[in-house]
Specification:
The chain is an alpha+beta fold and 604 residues long. The protein folds into two domains: 15-38 and 381-593, no CATH class; 74-363, Beta-galactosidase, Chain A, domain 5 (Distorted Sandwich). The protein has 13 helices and 25 strands. A hairpin with a 2-residue loop joins strand 16 (235-240) and strand 17 (243-248). Helix 1 (15-41) runs parallel beside helix 11 and helix 10 (507-522) runs antiparallel to helix 11. The longest helix is centred in the C-terminal third of the chain and has 44 residues, at 390-433.
């Protein structure tokens, strides 16, 4: 390892050395813990010969709708078992409903949705985003299909040709009704649309004159799920009596029924959601679906070796849900759209206990959620009112945070100077007790003397670690917030096409390593041994660079800008009277240490 000289480097051990290493060890442990968690939640690669996951008995596969016919001809030539004329279409048709936010294409086969385009969002190829996961829908069912507890009825309803109230294109506000009657089954599905992301569904299924429980479903997945992280972020979300819950895939059982009260419930991934808001929360019930799908041919890969289809199967969890009412008559609103705070907070319902609840809890940032939420609100404010680019907004937010932390860093440097001033006394105490072994009780007396010297001189042994301890929660909150904010999805800055994805050119990780090294190099560490200082100056940049290599470039941008701010600040502070005194003390100690070996050798 090449030698280098740190202008702020000092010799000697001490309590501060141990406290610094405690912080560094904590950072490394957290980083690798988070990386391990992400690997555990990524899709597993299995052999293509592995048996397919079995589906719950309550679920049936829905075949894809066939190509729509050019003409529609409802017919009533046949009769039901009760003698009433059948109501079913002669051919398949489509109806499109759209507003400024979406374009929904229905097919009358199963009266379900073939595509659900969100006009304000793009997929990874730059096309308008279709929220229907086509591969999953072909196998597990399309959105707004019906789910009953009878597999035979499910199969009939999926294949039935309903008679729509209209075909062609409807512009919201609008209402679309599908009717079907045959073989003793009478089905009516009515959907009402307005100018928002929310629609209303009115569904009723009657068999031989008696209502049966038919739930309206979002059977599985979202169209933006095209990489490992997207599948890992899928979950079931629900609110019971104004208390929200979020169930990861491993906690979701296929075919399980959750009875009310349910304020709202459904499924989501990192950025989008399909959530039911029942008209009657008390009598609502939710069925959860958990299937597995081989996405080896469709998944997008990032990082080294990306781009080519995998020869092995890649099985991922596909979550879905269906909501109904115990009375057999389902009345519910359905939100299908982005998990954006500005949208979610305006969608509300009344809980079973009379409390008003919104969909805002859908966007949750984990353990550091409270900090992450306010970090994003500050970031959003900068984006809306100062600069209209998310990358520059991250830079400005980083600078603002570092300016606020500047007084704390000055206090830390003052604490470091006090530590240097008493270092000769601490060295003398250590010299007095060095003949005792580390487990000797006399060592406790040494520690007591050192602590007394520190206390008498107003030195806090953890003073040098306070800025790091304060910044760590901000860093971890930013880490948990970044991949869950739909506003940052596909947000570009400079050469980076997506701030939530790794830098495709690896520039940010390289800048991170360089800035972290310079930060370690210029920052004084009172009481830390020179060899330890050298080791940390190389080890920490490599650890953080590796971490940023596979994570969202927005985090690396935040981190690197903070490092460069700290370098500039330290460069200025090193030239103040405080900095000059620290360097003079360090130089005197270095000269004493340089002369010590010669004196000892002469005695020998």
């Amino acid at each position: 390892m090449a030698e280098f000289k740190n202008p702020n480097q000092q010799g000697g051990g001490g309590q501060d050395s141990r406290s610094l290493f405690v912080v560094m060890f904590f950072m490394i442990a957290v980083f690798f813990g988070l990386s391990y968690y992400r690997q555990k939640t990524n899709p597993k690669t299995v052999s293509p010969n592995a048996p397919a996951a079995s589906q719950p008995a309550s679920q049936t596969s829905a075949p894809p709708p066939s190509a729509p016919s050019a003409s529609v001809a409802p017919k009533a030539s046949s009769t039901t078992n009760s003698g009433a004329p059948a109501v079913q279409a002669a051919a398949e048709s489509t109806t499109v409903v759209e507003n400024e936010l979406y374009r929904i294409e229905f097919t009358n086969r199963g009266a379900q949705v073939k595509s659900w385009i969100l006009k304000q969002y793009k997929d990874s190829d730059g096309h308008p985003l279709n929220l229907v996961h086509t591969q999953a829908a072909e196998k597990f069912g399309y959105p707004l299909s019906l789910h009953t507890y009878d597999s035979g009825v499910n199969a009939s309803l999926v294949q039935a040709l309903y008679v729509p109230s209209t075909t062609g294109t409807l512009t919201a506000p609008a209402t679309l009704t599908f009717k079907y009657s045959n073989g003793g089954l009478d089905v009516t599905k009515t959907f009402s649309f307005d100018e928002t992301y929310v629609l209303h569904a009115d569904v009723q299924v009657v068999r031989d004159g008696s209502p049966i429980r038919a739930l309206i479903a979002w059977p599985g997945g979202f169209g933006d799920q095209n990489n490992a992280q997207a599948y890992a972020g899928s979950q079931v979300d629900l609110s019971r009596s104004a208390r929200d819950e979020h169930l990861a895939a491993k906690k979701v059982s296929g075919g399980e029924t959750m009875n009310g009260p349910l304020d709202w419930a459904g499924v989501s991934d990192a950025y989008f959601a399909a959530i039911f808001l029942p008209d009657s929360p008390t009598t609502a019930s939710l069925v959860t679906f958990h299937n597995e799908l081989d996405v080896a041919k469709t998944i997008h890969r990032t990082g080294f070796g990306s781009g080519s289809p995998s020869a092995k199967a890649i099985n991922v969890s596909i979550l879905g849900s269906a909501l109904g009412d115990t009375s057999g008559h389902t009345l519910t609103r359905l939100y299908v759209g982005p998990k954006a705070v500005s949208v979610l907070k305006n969608i509300s319902t009344t809980s079973a206990n009379g409390t008003r609840v919104t969909l805002e809890p859908l966007l949750e940032f984990g353990f550091w959620g409270a900090i992450g939420k306010y970090l994003f609100l500050a970031l959003q404010f900068i984006h809306q009112h100062i600069v209209g680019n998310w990358g520059w907004s991250i830079i400005l937010l980083t600078l603002a945070i570092n300016v606020l932390l500047l007084p704390l860093r000055v206090k830390t440097m003052q604490s470091g100077l006090k530590m240097q001033r008493i270092q000769p006394q601490m060295d003398a105490i250590k010299e007095k007790y060095k003949k005792y072994k580390i487990n000797d009780p006399k060592r406790n007396e040494m520690n007591m003397e050192i602590m007394k010297v520190q206390k008498d001189n107003g030195v806090n042994m953890f003073g040098g670690c306070i800025p790091t301890l304060v910044q760590l929660p901000l860093l971890f909150a930013f880490f948990s917030m970044l991949p869950k904010v739909v506003e940052l999805r596909h947000a570009s800055w400079g050469w980076i096409p997506d701030l939530t994805a790794p830098d495709p050119y690896y520039i940010i990780p390289i800048v991170m390593v360089v800035s972290q090294f310079l930060m370690q190099y210029y920052t004084p560490s009172p009481g830390v041994d020179p060899q330890q200082q050298k080791m940390m100056a190389f080890m920490m940049p490599l650890v953080t660079g590796y971490f940023v290599l596979s994570y969202g470039s927005g985090l690396g941008l935040y981190w690197a800008v903070g490092n460069f701010f700290g370098i500039a600040q330290q460069w200025v502070m090193n030239r103040t009277s405080l900095g000059r005194e620290m360097r003079e003390i360090a130089a005197r100690r270095a000269r004493r240490k340089a002369g010590a070996p010669a004196t000892l050798q002469g005695k020998r």
